[in-house]
Amino acid sequence: MFGLNFIKADSSTHLIQFQKGQVVRQGIGMSFYYSSFTSTLAAVPVSSKELPFVFLLQTSDFQQVTIQGQVTYCISTPEQAAKMLNFTIKSSGRYVSDDPQKLDDRVQRSVQVAVRDRLQQQPLREALVFAPELIQYLKTQLASSEVLEALGVSVLDVAITAISPSPETAKALEAEVREQLLKESDDAIYIRRLSSIEQEKAVKEKELATEVAIQRKKQEIEEAKIEAQRMVLQKKYVLNEEKIKAEIAEEQQRQALVQLTSENERALADVAAYGIEKRMKVYESVGPEILKALAMSSMRPEQLIAQAFENLTQGENKVGNLNISPELLNSLIRQEAS
Fold first, then answer.
1. CATH number reported for the structural domain that contains residue 121 in this entry
2. Which of 79, 99, 176, 317 would be 85's cystine partner, CB 3.0–4.6 Å?
3. Are residues 302 and 333 in contact, defined by beta-carbon separation less than 8 angstroms?
4. Which among 117, 133, 165 is the end of a domain?
5. Is residue 185 part of a domain?
6. Domain that includes residue 152, residue range
């Protein structure tokens, strides 16, 4: 009535009242009366908005990948957004233009440009696992974006849900990965077999080393035994040599003794021979009868009887038969035994 209207905004809408091109009133969740003839209202939504996106981009090795994700943003500077875009509303509350819907496109293009600039520097294989780094890059780039700042927009969060290659490329990668996995499986089998062979080889080498050590130890023991025997033989040799030397010295002393004894006996024999020679010379001058008498003077009775028997068998006094009584023989035997 008379152009007087009432408006009430919710807590997520920033109202701005313009009169003659000047802001006369603004705020979040405001309610007031205004004249539709003299005032213009702009309603800027300040709540966060989630904007999904799907981009078909190309990597540095000219392979197409599909990037799916979501960006969460809000209008942090409503006055700046109202300057750049037309948020004017009618008395019915509807926007007079489609600029508010274009804000999503502008934010999406800014995200697309940032993703493209970064993804074109990565080859396919690295791009498929580039999501964490890409998220950090987008947060940094969008926070400092001049376009978004001019629109009064702040990016709250960025999420990358998938980075997928084309179906043909995916099949090729799957086949390659499958072959690689099979190859790794075969390599693991070969490595396990080689490891088993190496372990067996190590065991054999240890056994041979142990056997060599045992043989070396036995050899050392045998050498020690031989050395001990050699020392024993050497000591025996030294003892024998000393014994032989002692025996030689003893024999030399004995030889000297024998020689001295021989010389003494020879000297005694010479003396005895000299005495006998002198006696014989004396006996030559004495008659045989005298010598016989002298010899018989020192004889015992039985010797004298034996001499008498001998005289009866020789010379002129020789007799043919001689009878000797048993009593005479018994007396001679008893005298000999006594």
1. 3.30.479.30
2. 99
3. no
4. 165
5. no
6. 47-165
* pLDDT, averaged in runs of 10, over the chain (338 residues): 78 90 88 85 93 92 92 94 91 87 92 92 89 93 92 94 89 80 83 87 88 89 88 86 83 80 79 75 64 62 64 61 65 60
- 178 lies in a domain? no
Q: What is the 3-state secondary structure (H, E, C) of 77-118?
A: CHHHHHHHCCCEECCCCCECCCHHHHHHHHHHHHHHHHHHHH
Q: How many domains, in total, are found in the chain? A: 2
Q: How high is the pLDDT of residue 315?
A: 59
pTM (2 d.p.):
0.53
| pLDDT at site 176 | 77
Residue 18 placed within a domain: no
Looking at 111, 131, 165, the residue that finishes a domain is 165
pLDDT, position 44: 94
Pairwise CA distance, residues 279 & 273, whole Å: 10
Structure confidence at residue 242 (pLDDT): 84
Domain presence at residue 143 = yes
